[in-house]
Specification:
With about 140 residues, this protein is an alpha/beta fold. It contains 5 helices and 5 strands; from the N terminus they run E-E-E-H-E-H-E-H-H-H. The protein has helices at about 25-40, 80-90, 100, 105-110, 120-135; strands at about 1-5, 15, 20, 45-50, 95. The longest helix is centred in the last third of the chain and has 18 residues, at about 120-135. It starts with a strand and ends in a 6-residue tail after the last helix.
Length: about 140
């Protein structure tokens, strides 16, 4: 079983261009190519959706040079995640919706002004990952 995710840093807005590092279309193309290569190993493949980004770090694309060069902003993930999930499901890749797992209580588990989660939030996500992987393993012999 291979459990993988890519997404947050592809969605980072590059200050010089005001656009995400990777377009939505290229993101989907890249993730599906990665999944194809992983499937070629014979492993069961699981794609984990990207966890939420704090609103304070989310922005719409802007014009070139309009952002502070030190800005750490990301485009909203919903559209690119939905497109990736749709494409991956057509390839029979299992989906571990980590976004949905943590989203309702995200404010409680985020580290302040950060993309990462507290140890408690990480434990919740880790349990979801373990359950997702376990769901793809053969049944245990009695």
């Amino acid at each position: 079983v291979i459990h993988f995710n890519f997404g947050i840093w592809d969605a980072k807005i590059v200050p010089a261009t005001g656009q995400p590092a990777v377009s939505r279309e290229d993101y989907v193309k890249n993730v599906t190519e990665i999944a194809r290569r992983l499937q070629a190993t014979g492993a069961k493949v699981i794609f984990a959706t990207t966890t939420p980004i704090p609103d304070s770090l989310t922005s719409q694309p802007a014009g070139p040079g309009t952002l502070d060069p030190k800005a750490r902003l990301f485009v909203p993930l919903a559209d690119r995640t939905a497109a990736a999930v749709d494409a991956l499901q057509k390839m029979d890749v299992a989906i571990d919706d980590l976004h949905a797992v943590i989203h309702p209580d995200r404010e409680k588990y985020w580290n302040p002004k950060d993309l990462h989660f507290s140890s408690q939030g990480s434990q919740i996500l880790g349990k979801a990952v373990a359950a997702s992987i376990e769901s793809q393993l053969p049944p245990k012999a009695h």
